[in-house]
Design goal:
The complex is a heterodimer of chains A (171) and B (98). By secondary structure, chain A is mainly α. Chain A is built from 7 helices and no strands. The mean pLDDT of chain A is 86. The mean pLDDT of chain B is 88. The chains are: A mainly alpha (171), B mainly alpha (98).
């Protein structure tokens, strides 16, 4: 059952990604990306990352994609105009680069992990069961990665200030 | 369980993102393709975190934060660009080409 859901969500994610890069209208692209994000969050749940799956929907599909749609609306580029997909030369370059990357990445993904690094099968699932989905993230986040976490808040502040300054009428 | 297929799916999604960046001219769509690539990498982190410990999920958390900041700043740059050039087509924005 888990296998069926996993493969169904994966195939839908890949199909949505393909539609996302081929649709002419930016709004359609953004909405197909939302579909990719939802399907990926299904995959995350099956990979025992429940908290990340929830954050994926709240932050990515909820906040970031709304930002994208808002900018598309603001710039009034939502209606499908003349296609912006490159001509034959660009298509050949994209196809060649894509095939090379796919070969490299799939070759790399066949690498097996060294035995002594791996947790036993189902260890993360047991941790989620005993500690809860949020605590398994919160413990390393607020102990081992506390300094990066605090630095992230500084980065977000810088991004907010930068975005406001850049989008002002006169720069 | 699911490790090898997850890595292959992530590779396919990343490649689709790269092809999208190379194929399109609209700056916003290229940005959407970059988000697709970030998500592919997140999937790799999550898949490997089941074997290598939960640090991978913490990294995904940080990647999402950086992606949010990047989206805000990048879209602000696109808005500023649109104000100056009245287009988001990257072929028309060639000031540095000479």
């Amino acid at each position: 059952m888990r296998g069926i859901v996993f493969y169904a969500a994966s195939i839908m994610a890949i199909a949505s990604a393909l539609l996302c890069i081929t649709r002419r209208s930016p709004v359609a692209s953004a909405l197909w990306l939302v579909n990719v994000l939802f399907n990926l969050s299904v995959v995350y749940v099956l990979l025992d990352a429940h908290f990340i799956a929830a954050v994926q929907i709240l932050v990515y599909a909820g906040a970031i994609m709304v930002l994208f749609l808002f900018v598309i609306m603001l710039l009034n580029v939502g209606r499908p105009g003349p296609t912006d997909i490159k001509g034959a030369g660009g298509k050949v370059i994209a196809a060649v680069a894509g095939l090379i990357m796919l070969g490299e990445l799939i070759a790399l993904s066949r690498v097996t992990l060294p035995e002594n690094l791996g947790l036993p099968d189902g260890a993360v699932a047991r941790m989620v069961e005993t500690q809860g989905a949020v605590q398994v993230i919160a413990m390393p986040l607020f102990q081992q990665y506390l300094v990066p976490f605090e630095l992230t808040s500084v980065m977000l502040l810088a991004a907010v200030v930068g975005a406001v300054v850049l989008a002002k009428k006169k720069i | 369980m699911f490790l090898a297929p997850s890595l292959v799916i992530s590779a396919i999604l990343f490649t689709i993102g790269v092809v999208g960046v190379l194929l399109r001219r609209n700056a916003i769509v290229i940005f959407i393709c970059v988000e697709l690539m970030l998500n592919a990498v997140n999937l790799t982190f999550i898949a490997l975190s089941r074997q290598l410990g939960l640090d991978g999920q913490v990294f995904v958390f940080f990647v999402m934060t950086v992606a949010a900041a990047e989206a805000a700043v990048g879209l602000a740059i696109i808005i500023a660009l649109y104000r100056h050039r009245d287009t988001v087509n990257l072929d028309d924005i060639n000031l540095l080409r000479g």
